[in-house]
Amino acid sequence: MPDPGTLTEVANDRPGPALNAAMAETSEAVSARLSELLPEVDAPEGRVAAAMRYSALAGGKRLRPFLVVRSAALFNVSPHAALTVAAALEMIHTYSLIHDDLPAMDDDDLRRGRPTCHRQFDEATAILAGDGLLTRAFEVLADPVSHADPSVRCELVRELAEAAGAHGMVGGQMVDLMVERGIGSPEIDVAGITRMHQMKTGRLILFAGIAGPIMGKASSRMRASLHAYARDLGLAFQIADDVLDETGSAQDLGKTPGKDAAAGKSTFVTLLGLEEARSRAKLLSDQAVAHLDVFGPEADLLRAVARFVVERDR
Amino acid sequence: MPDPGTLTEVANDRPGPALNAAMAETSEAVSARLSELLPEVDAPEGRVAAAMRYSALAGGKRLRPFLVVRSAALFNVSPHAALTVAAALEMIHTYSLIHDDLPAMDDDDLRRGRPTCHRQFDEATAILAGDGLLTRAFEVLADPVSHADPSVRCELVRELAEAAGAHGMVGGQMVDLMVERGIGSPEIDVAGITRMHQMKTGRLILFAGIAGPIMGKASSRMRASLHAYARDLGLAFQIADDVLDETGSAQDLGKTPGKDAAAGKSTFVTLLGLEEARSRAKLLSDQAVAHLDVFGPEADLLRAVARFVVERDR
């Protein structure tokens, strides 16, 4: 139970099945929207379009799209526009996975149980597919289909570019690689690993939280609430990932547990210990929920997903 | 001499020195703007920022920025805004060179006489530097610094994304690789190679031609003129490149001449023969100049650059 001294309104706990159903519904809707926005191309260059579709339509939890869609719903944003922005964000997430999996980066053969893009196609095609998805995401955001107001579209482009760029996701990936390969000063402490994850994965999750208030032209108070919610949720998600890597079963995870720690990689678990990591993830999840106090029951699914990220078993 | 039956107003030929001076001035100004927009970063992730700067500030002809700046000047666009858009376009061009040079793509060690990004840093850093430049370009275009009107900024983002994406530059690069590696049907004829180049290099040059009229909210007639100008200039540029590859000296080119043809790669020269390729490039250059008939002497530098691309020796 969260500490009642720091949290209010921890009630409205939705049962797991409601969250599962809502997440499955969004996942299906965003896949359909991605399929529309990334059509097959009957021309020689169709090979790169096919690789983009292969990776973008591979499924996954679709956590970021869910956050976009649910936070947009708080402000009566058109569901079609929200799904469009969610799809653009998922294109950026997908491109980052394709490039991260490349031989020169993490060199992974499997992603979500299927061959990675460069194993299914080839390395050059995978590089281009990532580039194509990154480019397409901004094209979609800048199009009137994502919002009627061009100043809102520009803000979405700017915020997402900042989140994905050299000071956000790309910068976090750079630091992660440097630590792993001992480039520069390879020592990393809890503050360093927190900063790295806030850049590498946190910034995109943050965008997912504020896309709704941007589209809905929400008050700065409501936008700040969702900003704080997504920030804490993003970090909770990452710490929970490290905990799962240590404790999960290979079957649940779809990969070998303990791989990061065994590779000598610093994680929240190696730096904090299992119990402290668990307790921090739980605290952050509780804090994320508390940031939603400004909203009523209409934010219950966002509350439920903040609990889900630390309670999931994969 | 161009055929007087198809061309009018081929006068106003500026001497080479005026064009050279103007191109050198733009090149310096765009490098300065790129340096401002891509600052050094004093943090662990500064490594990727350094790689982005290394490649973006390596110089080069800066043909695309020159087209942006000169076409924007026709419509009294603020020079600072034009340079900002020119710098964003050059970031996209630079990212494409970084990724094209990667071992999985063209595997080049030298670019503009210096080690390529992945040789100077490492492969992972080069992939991330390209991703970072691509992302930063859209962030800059969507920022008020590129234009006061958000609908203009959105149009710039959309047009550049379309030019750079899977139906433009990335698609052209895909086709080029497929032809080279015999993926799919490797046969390519003049129509096929023309289409490939129009995607791979032509679309970005096209954007360079229309960025000015977009920023200046020019009439559709003037925009169409610059569109046609840039389309013909882009193809003339590519054919001239193939001619130079066949006839240029190693010293002028900074690379081994005849390398493409020796590698069994189809070029305009192998498909058309040297004389026919030369004559097509000249015809396209003349056509490009003719499309500027709607403008007066204020477009003389654009006329001069259309002649320059087919007359240059490197």
From TrEMBL, chains A, B:
GO biological process: terpenoid biosynthetic process
Keywords: Isoprene biosynthesis, Magnesium, Metal-binding, Transferase
Family stated for the protein in its record: Belongs to the FPP/GGPP synthase family.
NCBIfam families: FPPsyn
Magnesium listed as a keyword: yes
Cofactor: Mg(2+)
GO terms assigned for molecular function: metal ion binding; prenyltransferase activity
PROSITE patterns: POLYPRENYL_SYNTHASE_1 (PS00723), POLYPRENYL_SYNTHASE_2 (PS00444)
Record keyword Lipid biosynthesis present: no
A GO cellular component entry from the record: cytoplasm
Protein name: Farnesyl diphosphate synthase
InterPro entries linked to this entry: Isoprenoid_synthase_dom_sf, Polyprenyl_synt, Polyprenyl_synt_CS, Prenyl_diphosphate_synthase
